[in-house]
Amino acid sequence: MKARKLVTWACCVILAAVFALAAVPKLIDPGNFANDLLNYRLLPESLVGLFALFVPALELVIAAALLWPRYQRGAALLSTVLLVGFAAAMAQARIRGIDLSCGCFGAAFESKVSWLTVARSMLLAAVSAVPLFLLPLSAAAARTARGERPA
């Protein structure tokens, strides 16, 4: 049981650090992140600014929630979905031959989208899925999973 908690905690701490490091530069310079998003050619221009503000804020919320045991499971689910989405966006750019900066960590740590960045996102998605399987369900969720009515 202790090994499970240790692995879960380590995954959550690592992911929280990654999400915080990714969010802060994008929050400081949302214009640069908006340009990165525009280069993916996935979103209508009218939504790019909204996403440039929303995504880093969500990343920061996820980072904080991963460190709060009560919210770790939900944060792990959100981070897994977000990371798979990032990987899919990068993969479509590679497939379409779009040469761009990934925008993953803002302008501070610019890197080109490559199959390695896609793999990195998928690896992080796998790490973020670990707490989903190792964290116990809440009592209410466990009753619902067994088909019982909530009290």
Structure in words:
The protein is mainly alpha-helical and 151 residues long. It contains 6 helices and no strands. It has one domain (2-129). The protein has helices spanning 2-28, 30-39, 45-66, 72-95, 115-134, 139-145. Helix 1 packs antiparallel against helix 3, helix 2 crosses helix 3 and helix 3 (45-66) runs antiparallel to helix 4 (72-95). The radius of gyration is 17 Å and the shape is elongated. The two termini are 28 Å apart.
Decide which structural class fits the backbone: mainly alpha
* Discrete helix count: 6
Alpha carbon gap, first and last residue: 28 Å
Oligomer: single chain
On the 0 to 100 scale, the average pLDDT is 89
Calculate Rg over CA atoms: 17 Å
Major sheet details: none
- The total strand number stands at 0
Percentage of helical residues?
A: over 70%
Estimate what percentage of residues fall within beta strands: under 5%
Q: How many domain modules?
A: 1
Secondary-structure element pattern, one letter each: HHHHHH
Question: Based on CA inertia axes, which overall geometry fits?
Answer: elongated
Which regions have little confidence, pLDDT < 50, spanning 5+ residues? none
